[in-house]
From TrEMBL:
One of its GO terms (biological process) is septate junction assembly. The keyword Glycoprotein does not apply. The chain crosses the membrane at residues 40-61, 90-112, 124-144, 156-177. It comes from Caerostris extrusa (Bark spider). The keyword Lipid biosynthesis does not apply. This is Uncharacterized protein. Residues 217-251 are annotated as: Disordered. Signal peptide: none annotated. Residues 232-251 have a biased composition (Polar residues). GO terms for cellular component: plasma membrane. Keywords: Membrane, Transmembrane, Transmembrane helix.
Length: 251
């Protein structure tokens, strides 16, 4: 019989991407509570992304090439864009796509919170897919923005640092939820196998009982037939005397 220490040692020797689940527990708590924290974190990140996308779209819409606009929101803003118009359109497109992905991820995060209460691992998949797509998109978008925008301004520098950190946290949260999904999927598979085994055993027992009952009924029928034959009266055979031996004494 394999001991628990042997299994744990074999697990530690495996590479992290070959383990199932990837993580035994989150750093600060177990996988279930870590998944709750991941859903709350993703909702907060989506709200931040939507606000940021609206702000970027507004700034790029005001800063048309060749135009100058002033706004005052507690702080004076000067909207000036001196780059290529196609680059500006791509930046607007990136903000729109980021906003839509944030809406999708927020919806999936709410679904994840409901699925965690009932431990329905099948409903983890929308969050896993949307978080993966959102993180990959944000990595590409933030590096594209850092290339086309001037990093001389502190706003662009701050966005680059913030989103690098957020994407790293996204990967960690994705691994937590994925590990929880793998653990629950393994438990569900074992439960299904146990139910299948119990169903097979019950059907075999039922078939054995039916076959035993049929054998007993056949034996009973043969015994009753034999007893009926033994209780029938035996017919008397007529005794015939030979003519040669029949002699009468005459007086």
């Amino acid at each position: 019989m394999v001991s628990v220490s042997t299994v744990s040692n074999d697990r530690t020797r495996q590479k992290w991407y070959r383990r199932r689940p990837f993580l035994v527990k989150a750093v600060f708590t177990d996988l279930q509570n870590g998944s709750y924290a991941a859903s709350v974190y993703s909702i907060v990140e989506c709200v931040f992304m939507m606000i940021l996308a609206i702000f970027d779209i507004y700034c790029l819409a005001e800063a048309q090439p060749g135009s100058t606009h002033y706004r005052y929101f507690g702080i004076s803003f000067l909207f000036v864009y001196s780059g290529n118009q196609h680059i500006r359109n791509l930046l607007i497109f990136c903000s729109i796509v980021s906003f839509l992905l944030a809406v999708v991820l927020m919806t999936a995060s709410i679904m994840l919170m409901k699925a965690l209460k009932k431990e329905l691992e099948v409903k983890f998949r929308p969050w896993l897919l949307s978080m993966l797509a959102f993180t990959i998109w944000r990595v590409m978008a933030i590096f594209y923005r850092s290339i086309v925008n001037d990093l001389y301004f502190s706003y662009h520098q701050a966005m680059l640092v913030i989103w690098i950190l957020l994407c790293a946290v996204n990967v960690f949260m994705w691994l937590i939820v994925m590990s929880n999904y793998q653990e629950l999927a393994d438990i569900t598979r074992l439960e299904d196998m146990a139910k299948l085994k119990m169903g097979t055993m019950s059907s075999l027992n039922q078939s054995h009982s039916l076959s035993r009952h049929s054998v007993d009924s056949v034996k009973q029928q043969s015994f009753s037939r034999h007893s009926d034959d033994s209780t029938k009266p035996v017919s008397n055979t007529r005794s015939t005397t030979p003519k040669s031996s029949a002699s009468t004494n005459s007086a």
